[in-house]
Amino acid sequence: MTLAPTDSVTVSRRALLAACEELGLDTTGAEPIRIAENAIWRLPGQLVARISRPGRTHVAQQEITIANWLASHGIPAVHPAHGFVQPVTVDSRAVTIWEELPPHRDGTVNEVAHLLKALHALPEPDFELEPLEPFGKIRTRLNQATVLNEPDLAWLHDYTEGLEASWLRLLGDPDLSRCVLHGDAWVGNVATAEDGTSHLLDLDSFTVGPAEWDLTSTAVKLTSTSSISSRDYLDFCTVYGADVTAWHGYEVLRDIRELRMTAYSARIATEHPDHPRALREAQHRIECLKGAEGRRPWKWTAVP
């Protein structure tokens, strides 16, 4: 497992220790599971701590509410640990404590489809979920991507403006679907236990909007990056009951997803200056969006 630079681990460990001291939790032998958008740590007693980026306490609180709501509707997902008043905020980072899942593997596109079909069929909850707005996070990531040169950044911001205009036109379609969305539904956000139960992970992007947004996350892995096979994608469509690539608005959502992945890689390249491959990947993705790397699908690789 590749971890973020030591300073990222140190920052999250400091928040972890302070929060666990407040909650009365033992941190002996605590170890990082994943240090990425959020920091995930394993604790004694089959518990897991999740540490957000700064300023996300309200999102962490909503994650707990969503997890309980999913459980009430029989949708398997990560579940907050009982007996704690949480989240705990340390240096503006929200720390939440969760029950550790049993031994598991990453999900498959088939399992993603089953979970999305069940999720999208649920009624909207009695608590407020913000409507889908894809561009705030994209702009934040671009503003953090100081490693990029000015011409590329200017192009990306202009491209973002054009896509947002297309998105707003799409929202004017009276036939556009609306349901509860995971917001970032892909195989890495599904964990399947040894008994075959698949659980939803990373509940911080839950929103309401067109079901096609969640479906596009898998579709781009075929049409944009060719990281899944045509057979797997056909299986995904068969299970869910729809092929989003046949929808008239697919290209807009596809382009937004590609931009989102590019902005993420640019931010990672900025945060990981000791990983030259991260910057190369960000530059490669930008060139793809500009049309300098030929037609889709492109060859994109995971960033550190």
Would you mind describing this structure in some detail?
The protein has 304 residues and is an alpha+beta fold. It has 2 domains: 95 residues, Phosphorylase Kinase, domain 1 (2-Layer Sandwich), CATH 3.30.200.20; 182 residues, Aminoglycoside 3'-phosphotransferase, Chain: A, domain 2 (Alpha-Beta Complex). 46% of the residues lie in helices and 14% in strands. The chain is built from 9 helices and 10 strands. It has a 5-stranded antiparallel beta sheet. It has a 3-stranded antiparallel beta sheet with strand order 6-8-9, covered by helices on one side. Strand 4 and strand 5 form a beta hairpin. Helix 4 packs antiparallel against helix 5 and helix 8 runs antiparallel to helix 9. The radius of gyration is 19 Å and the shape is globular. The protein starts with 5 loop residues before the first helix and ends in a 14-residue tail after the last helix. The N terminus is likely disordered.
